[in-house]
Design a protein that fits this description.
The structure is a homodimer.
Chain A: E1 18-30, E2 35-41, E3 44-50, E4 66-75, E5 83-94, H1 112-117, H2 119-122, H3 126-148, E6 152-153, E7 159-160, E8 172-175, E9 178-182, H4 187-197, E10 199-207, E11 220-229, H5 233-254, H6 263-267, E12 275-278, H7 279-288, H8 301-310, E13 314-318, E14 341-346, E15 349-356, H9 361-370, H10 379-382, E16 392-398, H11 399-406
Parallel strand pairs in A: 3-5, 6-10, 12-13
Antiparallel strand pairs in A: 1-2, 1-4, 2-3, 4-5, 7-9, 8-9, 10-11, 11-16, 13-14, 14-15, 15-16
């Protein structure tokens, strides 16, 4: 027996037809003359009407077992659904052994750790799998938006031969008797590539050996990176604003989220521009609100939480002090203490970090030295800047954090199938 | 000055308009009264007409320097192009320092190693960047095809806590005082996920610590993985055949490849089914062709080269002996010496490996033992099979190899921006 339909493909147009559906048994209710069976697949539930005289064995099948069945589509008497299936044949059954480690129907709640240990079963809860359907739709919208803006998708290496961007928090390993590292970002590669490819983007996993256990950090995370020749940080902010608005529209259209509980997606006014605060604005505002912070300081978690209270939805913080930013960020032309940089924030959470890039290799060398890095370790990168390197700008967006904030979840582990943190490397 | 147009956006509709274009200087020809300048961006070349009295400095700019200029679009007198640009203003110039390590115009050929050392510059050759535009288009087509077949895109971890699939050739590293490994494939994760998500796909980098230096092996490679509940290996072959035909159609439509030199893409008849040979067929055919091979043997490189001569285009080899396949492959129901497996070949090159999966956990345990693996190391994986695991099938496609064969290149390094092999980890 072969599946002919998914649950969502069953509708009034095929009443009277025989179909084969497959999925798992979510519920069995025996009310004597009839047994109601709920079979679910990734697209939704199907109500199945079973004649207990014809199929007495159905009561013996444990819930969550997978099954393939055949039957006729008929109009449903229930108000909750338009059609149901009258069981006519049971195909192969694949038994679930009870007790199960968690209850995927959600009637019994389990702690996140227990759910992650049984992630495959956890995903049989519609509220959980919807998060990952939303994630896949967001990926699709991101790629479409960037292609429409003439960005080309690229794949840069995750194995790198030298500790770029400073070398802190890199996973190191033996590579045929040499040292190699796992990439923390595609920063240097994407900058090199715009020499010829103009506009590039990459969506890929990166790695950070940081021993911190918070709701927003993982050791393996997905990043959306873009880089573009002849654009500046203002252009990049515009692109990212359009991108996020496209994702929100797309997610709203899926109908997969219960928006009542998600103020962000429900309330954001897509016609309004995201707020743009300079770093200077932020310091003044924080001082007015009795925060201990001085001009030139980095914004602490506490300061960002205060700003998050004062500013609803997404907001940019622009023109950070240059010394707080990586060596590849361009100084501001009016005030070289500042930089042509931005972060996109939602509440206290940093979602995007970007800026115009330094394209003068001598200035990059000085900044490397200032940050205690050896320019000689960057020689393979710096030579590209002698080949006619145009001005460029770009940014990196933390995909997991974005999905976390858009879906209203409070822990990044909720939106990553198999999250990795210092304590968790399996399953 | 801001770029207003890319090269390909210049056409007869905007004759008389003033535009700003940006790119690099590919050529300068001074014929006295006029200087012809060719500026190229990723979308193509632009011919620029320069008045040497007005812009005498243009001859001083080294080739490959990046530049932004302004001018009026006019009808071209040349037969090779419809419009050209009359230079009116030169914006900022970003100088290329000569001598350059390679000549990206292709007038002087360089060895592949030298080109890879200067990859960013190498990509200014249109024939090179076209390979990566084709790669990005192939990625887009793959995702669209799979979404249309109801596959959901997922992201599984690249850091794994136990040496799945045998443990040979894994990169190992210290993960907060524990051992961790880089994933060789998403095999176990994608199988787990179909318990709830029905059909999943992932396109991601994987890692193999294999000390071999051939034209078809890399230590970091991109794989397209799919897995589906309630489908078998025949279904998966059908999906992959449709997928590859869609990619070929898409690549043909780009016009980016010189098809005269690429028999594969030019000659493949999309209306014909890919040939399907059983392993048995192959052994008989090889014996007839005086190859030393016995029933039950793996097919050597030499055998595959012979088969590649005998079979044009793509061909499947199905129903391999079970012992030659990994522990997760299902035995054949008619002949348990064989398996419900397939490879897709092009010439001697294996592009896809797939099959129906074993879904009985006791049989997986026996096969693990047969292959010298300890089932206890797979306990986190095997428990999923007690939760109502449906029958399933899937495959992995080597993306780099596919792009290599479709573009008619002879070394997989040609189609990977920054390839990784035992000798190469930078740039």
């Amino acid at each position: 027996m072969k599946r002919t339909h998914f649950a969502k493909q069953l509708n009034e147009d095929i009443i009277g037809q025989n179909v084969n559906v497959a999925g798992w048994i979510e519920d069995i209710r025996d009310i004597g003359k009839i047994i109601f069976l709920v079979i679910r697949d990734i697209t939704g539930p199907i109500q199945v009407i079973v004649n207990p005289k014809k199929f007495p064995q159905i009561n013996e099948i444990p819930r969550q077992s997978s099954i393939i069945i055949s039957g006729e589509i008929q109009k449903s008497k229930s108000k909750e659904m338009k059609v149901e299936l009258r069981l006519e044949e049971i195909g192969e059954t694949f038994y679930a052994k009870h007790p199960l480690p968690i209850d995927p129907t959600g009637r019994l709640e389990s702690a996140l750790d227990k759910r992650l240990d049984a992630r495959a079963l956890d995903l049989r809860n519609e509220n959980v799998s919807n998060l990952f359907i939303i994630r896949s739709i967001a990926l699709e919208i991101i790629r479409k938006t960037l292609r429409d803006e003439l960005f080309i998708e690229v794949n840069t290496p995750k194995i790198i031969g030298s500790a770029s961007e400073g070398g802190a928090n890199l996973f190191e390993f033996d590579y045929f008797k040499r040292k190699a590292y796992l990439a923390q970002s595609p920063q240097l590669y994407k900058e090199q590539l715009i020499l010829a490819m103009d506009r590039v983007f990459e969506i890929a996993p990166y790695f950070r050996a940081e021993n911190s256990n918070t709701v927003r950090h993982l050791t393996e995370f997905y990043s959306v990176d873009i880089e573009a020749a002849f654009l500046d940080y203002h252009d990049i902010m515009e692109i990212m604003e359009r991108l996020i608005k496209n994702i929100i529209t797309g997610i709203k259209n899926t109908g997969l989220l219960d928006l009542k509980e998600n103020d962000l997606v429900q309330n954001i006014l897509l016609e309004n521009k995201f707020e743009r605060l300079t770093y200077n604005n932020c310091i003044e505002e924080l001082k007015k609100n009795d925060q201990k912070v001085e001009y030139g300081d980095d914004l602490s978690d506490l300061s960002l939480r205060k700003l998050g209270q004062l500013h609803q939805g997404f907001y940019f913080i622009t023109e950070w002090p240059l010394k707080l930013k990586p060596f590849y960020i361009l100084e501001n032309e009016r005030d070289p203490f500042l930089s042509n940089s931005f972060d996109l924030q939602i509440g206290y959470l940093e979602l995007i970090s970007g800026g115009s890039r330094q394209h003068d290799p001598d200035k990059i060398r000085s900044r490397l030295k200032e940050q205690g890095l050896n320019p000689n370790n960057f020689s393979q990168h710096l030579r590209v800047f002698d080949w006619g390197m145009p001005p460029h700008a770009g940014c990196g967006l933390g995909l997991d954090r974005l999905i976390m904030s858009l879906t209203g979840t409070l822990n990044v582990r909720e939106v990553v199938l198999y999250p990795r943190d210092p304590d968790r490397i399996s399953p």
